[in-house]
Amino acid sequence: MLPMSHPYDPNQSPEGQPSANPYEQPGGQYPPAGQQYPPAGQQYPPAGQQYPPAGQQYPPAGQQQYPPAQYGQQPYGMATNEHPQGTMILVLGIVGIFVGICAPIAWYFGNKTLREITASGANYSNVSQIRTGRMLGKVFTIIYIVLIVLYIIAIIAAIALSASSR
Asked: Is the Cβ–Cβ distance between 161 and 117 less than 8 Å?
């Protein structure tokens, strides 16, 4: 049986042949805004590589040199694992909206975990969860502290008003 291409593949013509568009990269990508198309006979850099700065020429086709990937190394510094405390910090930050004691705990663990990640230099895929939980913890800890101070001021004012009315 012959392999069939997807009917809406942008790189395939209706006859199933690759697109003849000289300005199109594989995958249908075009250069970013403000970048020029390369001259005829020269290629785009592969996906994920940088375009040369304005005024510099693209290397001729077939002469592009890219460093070989090291064994066990993932390209482009991709995050591989989730940090084990990431979800806990996010949940504590969200619960801290309703339960005041959870907010400073999320703030503390978020700071501790981010320091640990920075010191180790590891890439985790859930760093944004950790930052979000830490930020929620920080914001709601400050809000709860302000509310406690206002509550204490209200109690002192109520005591002072009741003492002065006697």
From this structure: no
